[in-house]
Design goal:
By secondary structure, the protein is α/β, with parallel strands linked by helices. The protein has twelve helices and nine strands. It folds into two domains: 136 residues, NAD(P)-binding Rossmann-like Domain (Rossmann fold), CATH 3.40.50.720; 98 residues, UDP-galactose 4-epimerase, domain 1 (Alpha-Beta Complex), CATH 3.90.25. A seven-stranded parallel sheet has the order 3-2-1-4-5-6-8, sandwiched between helices. Helix 4 runs parallel beside helix 5 and helix 8 packs across helix 12.
């Protein structure tokens, strides 16, 4: 039995859909905070169980009888590590034979703002003794949905990544990798650095967006501090603006690309090209 935590989230839903193409629905558990949101899965035969990262008792119930668990990382800053520790403890106590975790690209070396919690979670998992796989996900192209909307409205967008390149691809590619790890063989103990085959820059993104929209789109590069101030002025909370500006710093430093080829190997096909990913964003 395979348990997917956060199964009604944007990544989790894609993973469950992918699993349903490979295993019977009765072998899949959607572990969610709000079971009502997973009613569609339940109607298709998926087991839906309540699981709250802040409620250890719910995790113990959700993991009962599980062979494999996918821990999709929490999105709650300041609480993420404690929540992950609760999941790992529950997985160990349930006798889970394989725990896969969605970490971040280069978790042990990157200086990205989000990295410390991921690095610490990986250490907790290693220390737990539960057989593991780390899926170190890169950037999702869907992270730029708001950027696309702004660019289509104004003809331009700004950032602070310079000509740095990132291996961003749609969530669907990362979800397909998780499905392979959960249903395939030979993945226990592996650490996968997951990113697109062909890294791209923000000027590349602007060109792809212009081609998809059929109108000019330009990119303006700003110093990091100025970029962060612009994000706050646009209405973003200070912590969010700081995180986005730090992501651009990471892109400029090459921290969001990888030449490992791990993602391509896991999904058994080339990763989604930038042009195709941008067309999906423009059409969404």
């Amino acid at each position: 039995m395979i348990v997917v935590t956060g199964a009604t989230g944007r990544l989790g839903r894609l993973v469950v859909e992918g699993l349903l193409k490979r295993v019977p629905p009765t072998e899949v558990v959607a572990a969610v905070r709000d079971p009502e949101k997973a009613a569609g899965f339940a109607a298709r035969g998926v087991q839906v169980r309540h699981a709250d990262y802040d409620d250890p008792a719910s995790l113990a119930t959700a993991f009962a009888g599980a062979d494999k668990v996918l821990l999709i990382s929490s999105s709650t800053p300041g609480q993420r590590l404690a929540q992950h520790e609760a999941v790992v403890t529950a997985a160990r106590e349930a006798g889970v034979s394989h725990l896969a975790y969605t970490s971040v690209l280069g978790a042990d070396t990157t200086k990205l703002f989000v990295a410390p919690d991921h690095k610490a979670t990986e250490a907790v998992i290693r220390a737990s003794g539960v057989p593991f796989t780390f899926l170190r996900n890169g950037w999702y192209t869907e992270n730029y949905a708001a950027t696309v909307a702004q660019a289509l409205a104004t003809g331009s967008f700004a950032g602070s990544a310079g000509k740095g390149r990132l291996g961003g691809v749609p969530r669907a590619d990362f979800a397909a990798a998780a499905v392979e790890v959960l249903t395939g063989e030979g993945h226990v103990g592996r650490v996968y650095e997951l990113a697109g085959d062909e890294p791209w820059s923000y000027p590349d993104f602007a060109a792809a967006l212009a081609a998809a929209a059929g109108k000019p789109v330009s990119y303006t590069d700003l110093p990091t501090a100025e970029h962060q101030r612009a994000l706050v002025a646009a209405g973003l909370p200070e912590p969010v603006a700081a995180m986005l500006a730090d992501a651009d710093r990471g892109i400029a430093a090459g921290e969001l690309s990888s030449a490992s080829g791990d993602l391509r190997k896991l999904i058994g096909r080339p990763t989604t090209p930038l042009a195709e990913a941008v067309r999906e964003l423009v059409g969404s």
